[in-house]
Design brief:
With 139 residues, the chain is mainly alpha-helical. Among the domains are: 36 residues, no CATH class; 59 residues, no CATH class. The protein is built from five helices and two strands, in the order ββααααα. It has a two-stranded antiparallel sheet. A hairpin with a 4-residue loop joins strand 1 and strand 2. Helix 2 crosses helix 5. The radius of gyration is 23 Å and the shape is elongated.
């Protein structure tokens, strides 16, 4: 049993990170569907007005594979020149996949590596905008 002293906090909101921490009590005798419905109702009634529900309109699902490829490309560009990076990609990709990759053109290769930096800032939006991934700058 928790002591209800002044230091006890059952809920808190970190407004900077948009995170609320709270204790919940779940009656596991209910089905998953019943618990989901009850939580959905709780969300509707308790979402703070200062934290509106994000709109999904106009957003494509996140392609994590593309993000990981770009991150790998950024890491490679951190230690290799554009020409060396293209040579490494050419040597490691099977011949049938070389035609399908967009990483063999210097301009596109650098654009994709820069997108990795944008992905980094979107993923870690709470960091200072000047904060860069460890694999920056590119060579």
């Amino acid at each position: 049993m928790v002591d209800a002293s002044d230091s006890y906090c059952c809920a808190e909101i970190n407004r900077e990170l948009w995170i609320e921490r709270l204790r919940v009590e779940i009656d596991w005798s209910f089905s998953n569907d019943q618990i989901r419905k009850a939580f959905k109702l709780w969300l509707k009634e308790n979402r703070p007005p200062s934290f509106p529900e994000p709109s999904e309109r106009g957003h494509k699902p996140v392609d994590w594979r593309a993000r990981l490829e770009r991150l790998g490309l950024l890491r490679l560009r951190h230690v290799q020149s554009v020409e060396d990076t293209i040579q490494i990609i050419t040597q490691t990709l099977p011949s049938e996949k070389r035609k399908a990759t967009k990483f063999l053109e210097p301009g596109i290769l650098n654009q994709e590596a820069e997108k990795a930096v944008t992905d980094f800032h979107n993923l870690f939006h709470f960091l200072d905008p000047a904060e860069m991934p460890r694999s920056c700058p590119m060579k």
